[in-house]
From TrEMBL:
Originating organism: Phytohabitans suffuscus
SUPFAM superfamilies registered for this protein in UniProt: NTF2-like
Superkingdom, taxonomy of origin: Bacteria
Protein name (Swiss-Prot/TrEMBL): Ester cyclase
GO biological process, one term: polyketide metabolic process
Family matches, as Pfam families: SnoaL
InterPro entries to which the protein is assigned, alphabetical: Cyclase_SnoaL-like (IPR009959), NTF2-like_dom_sf (IPR032710)
Length: 140
């Protein structure tokens, strides 16, 4: 693996573990480029740095114990693909769902582009249906 790929993986891992998992908002500001673009924004967010910040805050408020178990990461240059399983217990509102006290786990695959040590772009797919079923908001 190249040094560029290793460095890019380290940036994405720090975002997953320290920003998403611990709510380190000053690190968020450091890791995300000001012109960041989310190519797959979640409902109710904007496709920019403000939108992803709002999403991360909503996840931390809805699931204060929110964390990711990174299963694998691979990089080609500055493009990092991560497969992870998110875990949390819903004690706050999320996506319009009142707190349930239920634990969830759902899979996500993300691709993040890292340029000069900062995350500039994101593409991702999360199994939100699984999360909504676990919260009792949807039955299948």
């Amino acid at each position: 693996m190249t040094q560029e790929s290793e460095a890019a993986i380290a940036v994405v891992r720090r975002n997953t573990e320290e920003v998403q998992g611990k709510g380190d908002w000053s690190l968020f500001e450091e890791l995300f480029a000001d012109d960041f673009v989310d190519h797959t924004p979640q409902p109710g967010t904007t496709p920019d740095k403000d939108g992803v910040r709002a999403l991360y805050r909503a996840l931390r408020e809805g699931f204060p114990d929110f964390r990711a178990d990174i299963k694998w990461q691979i990089a080609s240059g500055g493009m990092v693909t991560t497969y992870k399983i998110y875990h949390g217990t819903q004690t706050g509102p999320i996506l319009g769902i009142a707190p349930t006290g239920r634990a969830v786990e759902f899979e996500t695959v993300d691709v993040m582009k890292v340029t000069d040590g900062r995350i500039t772009d994101h593409w991702g797919v999360g199994n939100l249906l699984k999360m909504l079923v676990q919260l009792g908001a949807v039955t299948i």
